[in-house]
Amino acid sequence: MDGLDSRGEVVVIGATNRLDSIDPALRRPGRFDREFLFNLPDKKKARKHILEIHTRDWNPKLAEPFVDELAEKCVGYCGADIKALCTEATLAALRRRYPQIYGSSVKLTLDVASIVLGPADFSKAIGTIVPASQRALAPPGRALSPALRPLLAGSFSLVLKALLRVFPHAQCADRDNAHGGDNQLLEDDLYSDDDNEERSASIYEAPPTGSPKTPLCSPPTHRPFLHFSSSALQRPTAYRPRLMLAGPPGSGQSSHVAPALLHHLDKLPVHRLDLPTLYSVSAKTPEESCAQVFREARRSVPSVVFMPHISEWWETVSDTVKSTFLTLLQDVPSFSPVLILATAETHYSQLSEELRSMFQRSYGEVVTLSAPGEEDRKSFFSDLLLVQAARAPPRLRSTGRCEEVLPAAEAPGPRVLSTEEQRRLAEQEENTLRELRLFLRDVTKRLATDKRFSIFSKPVDIDEVSDYLEVIRQPMDLSTAMTKIDTHQYLRVKDFLGDIDLICSNALEYNPDKDPGDKVIRHRACSLKDTAHAIFAAELDPEFDRMCE
User: Could you list the residue ranges forming a coiled coil in this record (predicted)?
Assistant: First the structure.
């Protein structure tokens, strides 16, 4: 790369999905001038657009409310996962409409228009598809279960309000999802701390023509040129954002509320820190695993460090791990947007002094969850007992039900080529045969110029051997073979080798193994045959031979 001249004619593009394995020297300016990070489609709008792309040819088209709901369910899906989801839903509809195709070994005639996809098909597909980002590690965030939403909706709303207060970056993520802020570079120009930017001091020795900026003042009077400040609307600040969900066991803080909160923050990267994270990798010490989590969190800000069941594993780990954790926590810059989210299966007052010092209740960093109220329980049981229980139980489909008898599909006939396809095919065949003729001429010339085979280069003189045609019914020689090449009579290699074999067999048949002169001719005929076959075996590409066939 250093030896390439900057001529604007060579562009070097690199791609990787293991950014942590790249040599840092490749990422500095002078190697690759631009670096683009392609994350998962973390916005509902982006996933909806991908769904619309993969279903744009469907007739009828999917309803927009259904696409919105489906995009909301596809958190963590990449473009290939969304495409696989559409394919799997289509196959589910096919299995539902025509289950008999899986019991037949022949091709059946199907009415494609009768295959109509429904919500159940997409539900089955979502349950079948495992997103690529979730194959190695299950995501910590998931939506609140519809069955438990009446019980935990109030607690989740309370936690969400506390989150927006201590971590304003979550509100920015919501604004991006709502308004579709796709380009951060364009958003940076929407806010400015300098109301008189047009009249700010010029950075040039002489202001450009037509510029409203004032010329450079003397050093003692001019104010600084560069202001590394941004609007609080665009870059909200939070001092050491932390949030703990505490409460008695069974309140759902670790199993339902916290995962729903992380699902709400699907745009932000989440780094889990718990006992499995610390001790699952035997090649690393718990201290190294803890440092790795904080290093990744600080590298991908704004981010979330999720610590479930902190009240349990804090009493389990060693003092060295605790000291390492506290040191790393203090080393995080005060205004760095790294949210520390923890859950405790106990009351806040029963936590250790170290944990209470990390999460201050007076700062609004602790949310205590309580048991669902009477209205929440009433809403839960009314749906369960009055609505769901009143429905008739679903009928089991009989496995032996009468299935529609489908006729076997007719065997497809040969495809009719278009005029353009026929022209291209004929041109391709002519090019192949031309190369074959060039190769055969070269082989024939090499054999004819060999002094050993000069006796076979021309037809036999009938005046010298008058009985030749009485013995040999099909004469052949190299000169006749060359004529057949010129008249396009050889379409395959085996046809040419057949004539070479004919020359050899004619010589052996007409010249018995008696006279010394006849023995010489027989020897040269066999040598001609072996030489020709050896040339083809060594120089002819087998793939080209198959093309000729």
Answer: none
CA dihedral 361, 367, 372, 374 (to 10 degrees): 60
How does DSSP classify residue 112? G
CB 140 within 8 Å of CB 270: yes
> How many angstroms separate the CA atoms of 469 and 462, rounded?
8
Residue 295's nearest CA partner among 254, 258, 327, 322 is 327
> Where do runs of H (alpha helix) occur along 419-492?
419-448, 468-471, 478-486
**Taking Cα atoms as reference points, which of 93, 138, 428 lies closest to residue 277?**
138
The pLDDT of residue 41: 79
Query: What's the average model confidence in pLDDT over 104-125?
Result: 86
Can you give the pLDDT at residue 107? 82
- List, in order, residues 6 or more apart from 543 with CB less than 8 Å away: none
String of DSSP letters for 371-413: ---HHHHHHHHIIIIIIITTSPPPPPPPTTPPPPPPPBPPPP-
Cα separation, 264 vs 507, whole angstroms: 91
Check if the beta carbon of residue 245 is closer than 8 Å to that of residue 257: yes
Q: Kindly write down the DSSP assignment for every residue of 6-28, as one continuous string.
A: --SS-------S-GGGS-GGGGS
Integer Cα distance of 138 and 120 in angstroms:
24
| Structural contact between residues 498 and 477, judged by C-beta atoms closer than 8 angstroms | no
Domains of the chain: 1-136 (1.10.8.60), 149-180+234-376 (3.40.50.300), 419-548 (1.20.920.10)
d(CA 247, CA 367) in angstroms, rounded, equals: 8
* CB neighbour class for 293 (10 Å; exposed up to 12, middle 13-18, buried from 19): buried
Is residue 38 very low, low, confident or very high in pLDDT (cuts 50, 70, 90)? confident
Name residues whose C-beta falls within 8 Å of residue 509's C-beta, 6 or more positions apart in sequence: 471, 472
Strand, helix or coil at 279?
A: helix
pTM of the model: 0.61
Per DSSP, what are the bridge partners of residue 307?
342
What was the pLDDT predicted at 181? 46
Report the amino acid identity of residue 4: L
The position carrying tokens 């205590």 is 368
**Sheet containing 303-307, strands listed edge to edge, beginning at the edge strand earlier in sequence:** 270-272, 303-307, 338-343, 242-246, 366-368
Quick one: 348 exposed, middle or buried, by C-beta within 10 A (0-12, 13-18, 19+)? middle
Closest CA to 278 of 328, 242, 332: 328
Record the tokens describing residue 457, joined without a space: 């280069």
Using DSSP, how many helices (H) and how many strands (E) does the chain show?
Answer: 20, 5
Q: How far is CA 493 from CA 78, 287, 530, in A?
A: 52, 72, 15
Residues 70 and 47: their CA atoms lie apart, in Å, by 9
Question: According to the per-residue pLDDT averaged within each range, which of 62-66, 182-186, 512-516 is highest?
Answer: 62-66
The per-residue pLDDT for range 452-493, each reduced to its tens digit, is 998 998 998 888 888 888 888 899 999 999 999 999 999 889
